[in-house]
Design goal:
The protein is mainly alpha-helical. The protein folds into 2 domains: 4-135, no CATH class; 167-426, MetI-like (MetI-like fold, Orthogonal Bundle). 69% of the residues lie in helices and 0% in strands. It has helices at residues 4-24, 36-41, 53-73, 78-98, 114-135, 137-155, 158-175, 177-180, 216-252, 254-269, 272-283, 287-297, 300-313, 317-324, 329-365, 376-385, 394-422, 424-434, 458-469. Helix 1 (4-24) packs antiparallel against helix 5, helix 5 (114-135) packs across helix 6 (137-155) and helix 11 (272-283) runs antiparallel to helix 12. It is globular and about 75 Å long. The relative contact order is 0.10.
Length: 474
């Protein structure tokens, strides 16, 4: 039987995930002033869920592969295997029906069906989680318990709360940009006032105008999207590369590990900014290229951090036992090494997002950003080029500058908080330094998905939970 709390999470997060994905690709010209019916119809417009076709192909292949492996090895339940296969079929059908696989685009054959396929894909993924919880109630209960304890520890950390609050506000502004500011206002001919006009009470004049008489507020709202998208997607590329290379180098060691580390050292010693400038000039100036450039040039730090932790984990007894019984290297890295270094990877990923956003700002300020899209770095560049600081037109300089500082501080705070939450040694050190530990700090979440390396029974979890409810009294 699926745990009640996991059931509630699925029922909440499935529609929320669909809503977030739909808002990311929502039409840019449907503000609330156009009418409620027009706004609701926008969720079924051809622009919604228009992604590159290779993303659908990759997702379909992954789900099908897991389903087929489940049938071959007979590890997953029968219903879960079929759910995985069905989800993979949905993604592949989406690619072939709605898009044009030959051009890696979902704007080819029937783009008006993208919203429906996205809805089916999200529901299918939620059904897979539901089926997994039903087939593995003990493991699902332990996962839910761990997640709750991690959330309690995170909430007890003031840095985590502050960083999350800032991030929610900025992310909400970015997702709701189509409703907050009509994208047509960003057109060069859409003049709302005179050049460098000071802020007034008119909505689009709340932050004044720029050098062309355009609304700084509209530029600021839509710039949040590009800065966050570039930061998050570049972080995904950087983390996958860095974690993969770090795990391989740390586990194998020897000459192969040395080769990976020397490659890492090469990227570390090459000045990042000149390398990124050369790549941006060669590959083109659009934000997809900026994402790729930041992702492939910012992974060495992650690789070295992960490798150092893998060197520790590979010497533990459960890894030695796995080798003794004949487990393959791929199985050991996937089932034992990765789950034990994942907390470090996760905490480091939060910090890398801040670095990626700063990197995009640097490239845009130097004129190597996407000329067709506003970002906070582009706003700062235009303010500097047209002498906003000398006028002084503070309303053009301060909003993007403060936003960049806030988002970097938010991710830094969250990364520090997660580092303390997921590492008991740092948490104990923090408690010793403060003198008084918060109530939630006494909880020690068990490792989730740690395979055979970390085993925590449900009885132990319930015992810790009941002890916590009694205030820690024996």
């Amino acid at each position: 039987m699926i745990p009640a709390r996991l059931k509630a999470w699925i029922l909440v997060w499935t529609p929320l995930t669909w809503l977030i994905l739909s808002l990311c690709t929502y039409p840019k010209d449907r503000t609330f002033s156009t009418g409620v019916g027009h706004v609701l119809a926008g969720f079924a417009s051809p622009t919604v869920a228009r992604y590159p076709a290779w993303i659908m192909a990759a997702a379909g292949i992954i789900f099908l592969a897991y389903g087929v492996i489940g049938f071959v090895r007979r590890k997953a339940g029968v219903v879960l295997r079929w759910m995985l296969v069905a989800t993979g079929v949905v993604f592949l059908a989406w690619m072939f029906w709605a898009g044009d696989p030959s051009s890696f685009s979902l704007t080819g054959r029937h783009p008006g069906w993208n919203w429906l396929f996205q809805l089916l894909a999200v529901v299918a993924c939620g059904a897979c989680v539901w089926t997994w919880g039903s087939a593995n109630p003990d493991r699902a209960s332990l996962t839910v318990w761990n997640t709750r304890q991690i959330w309690k520890l995170f909430r007890s950390n003031w840095q985590g709360r502050a960083g999350l609050s800032i991030l929610i506000v900025i992310a909400a502004m970015a997702l709701l940009a189509p409703f907050l500011a009509n994208h047509a206002i960003l057109d060069p001919t859409a003049i709302v006032g005179t050049d460098f006009h000071a802020p007034t009470s008119h909505y689009y004049m709340w932050l004044g105008t720029d050098q062309g008489g355009q609304s700084v507020l509209a530029e600021f709202i839509w710039s949040a999207r590009i800065s966050l998208i570039v930061g998050l997607l570049a972080t995904v590329i950087s983390t996958v590369l860095g974690a993969g290379i770090g795990i391989a180098a740390g586990y194998y060691g020897g000459w192969s590990g040395e080769v990976w580390m020397r490659l890492t050292d090469v990227f570390l010693v090459i000045p990042w900014l000149p390398l990124a400038m050369v790549l941006a000039a060669m590959l083109g100036q659009n934000y997809w290229m900026i994402i790729l450039i930041i992702g492939v040039t910012s992974w060495p730090g992650t690789a070295r951090v992960v490798r150092s932790d893998v060197l520790r984990v590979r010497e533990l007894q459960f890894v030695e036992r796995a080798r003794a019984i004949g487990s393959s290297n791929a199985h050991i890295m996937n089932k034992h090494i990765l789950p034990n270094v994942f907390p470090l990877i996760f905490a480091n990923t939060i910090l890398v997002v801040a670095i990626a956003i700063l990197s995009e700002t640097e490239l845009s300020f130097l004129g190597l950003g996407d000329p067709l899209n506003f970002s906070w770095g582009t706003m700062l560049r235009n303010a500097w080029l047209y002498g906003a600081a000398g006028l002084p037109a503070w309303w053009y300089l301060l909003p993007p500058g403060i936003a960049i500082i806030l988002i970097v501080v938010a991710f830094t705070f969250m990364g520090t908080a997660f580092d303390e939450v997921l590492d008991p040694r740092l948490r104990k050190r923090e408690e010793a330094g403060s003198g008084a530990a918060p109530k939630a700090a006494s909880l020690n979440p068990a490792a989730v998905g740690a395979g055979d390396g970390v085993e925590v029974s449900m009885d132990a979890a319930e015992g810790i939970n009941s002890e916590t409810e009694r205030g820690g009294q024996p």
